[in-house]
Amino acid sequence: MRVLVRRCWGPPLAHGARRGRPSPQWRALARLGWEDCRDSRVREKPPWRVLFFGTDQFAREALRALHAARENKEEELIDKLEVVTMPSPSPKGLPVKQYAVQSQLPVYEWPDVGSGEYDVGVVASFGRLLNEALILKFPYGILNVHPSCLPRWRGPAPVIHTVLHGDTVTGVTIMQIRPKRFDVGPILKQETVPVPPKSTAKELEAVLSRLGANMLISVLKNLPESLSNGRQQPMEGATYAPKISAGTSCIKWEEQTSEQIFRLYRAIGNIIPLQTLWMANTIKLLDLVEVNSSVLADPKLTGQALIPGSVIYHKQSQILLVYCKDGWIGVRSVMLKKSLTATDFYNGYLHPWYQKNSQAQPSQCRFQTLRLPTKKKQKKTVAMQQCIE
Q1: What is the pTM for the complete model shown?
Q2: Is the pLDDT of residue 253 over 80?
Q3: Which domains, from first to last, does the chain contain?
Q4: In terms of Cα–Cα distance, which of 81, 79, 6 is closest to 37?
Q5: Which band of pLDDT confidence, cut at 50, 70 and 90, is reported for residue 357?
Q6: In what order do the strands lie in the sheet with 48-54?
Q7: How far apart are CA 16 and CA 85, in angstroms?
């Protein structure tokens, strides 16, 4: 009885914790004894039959580890491995599909999950809630490889928010999937690692993907025991990591400090370039650099009153200096119609403007916060344009 309940519904709740009411399917399974439910096809030990759900590079590393385990005939951990991924507009597909095809693994595109029999499911960066009916097809449930120390940073973008908020410690959690909510199931294994100083989200994700892959294999080696020893997530300390929108990339010069801007750059710069507004033109800031003390000592920076967004070209270091809430950031290249170095932007745009406005102050030629329309406004604008046409 106890073994079945833990397999289907997880370990007991901590004292005082609350949980949503189980569905009739879960309650029915809990009322049955293990001997009554045991199927001759359910395996008590490895090798396991695994169905993997994933999409991106983080998930690809977990799939690679599972595939390597299947190929290792001496260890006999996995003898069947199939893959479910999301459709992609790219002909090659997402990284997980590319790896599956290259490795000649059976691959399905969601919502198709095949019709085979499996012992356990594994999810990594899949981005879809899996319903109860699907979860119940797996005797050992579905495991999730999540790149944070749950309950901190539940949701689809934990690594980005780790960097964005300046966390100094993060980690990976192997947990059991629960229906209807993301990242709330019992923790089977959790390990922490320090966040390297000035690490980008992409760099940190690579570190966590390798850690998560190793942890997943460790859990699968002792799967029944890991499930029995799972612990509920604590009630306190839960935070959510929502998807990043284009609006997040718009720098708020009056509100954000240089540290916050650099965190934003390291968190999303490789996905969405940071954006600003200059003379009614949208400019993307491609390469940000910290400003050293010798540059900050320049009289041009200290001898005049400046407001956030003021932009000055520093000839010696060949960077644009932009003033924010508490100081300066450096920009080596921008995108304005095409990619431009700081020198190109100065020669083609800033310098001609100052020639026409010789008495102007830097504050009159400044970067301003770009205000992107909300999705509702965008849809309304498109609808109006269609009516006009």
Answers
A1: 0.86
A2: yes
A3: 2-228 (3.40.50.170), 246-365 (3.10.25.10)
A4: 6
A5: confident
A6: 107-109, 78-85, 48-54, 120-124, 142-146, 169-176, 187-194
A7: 38
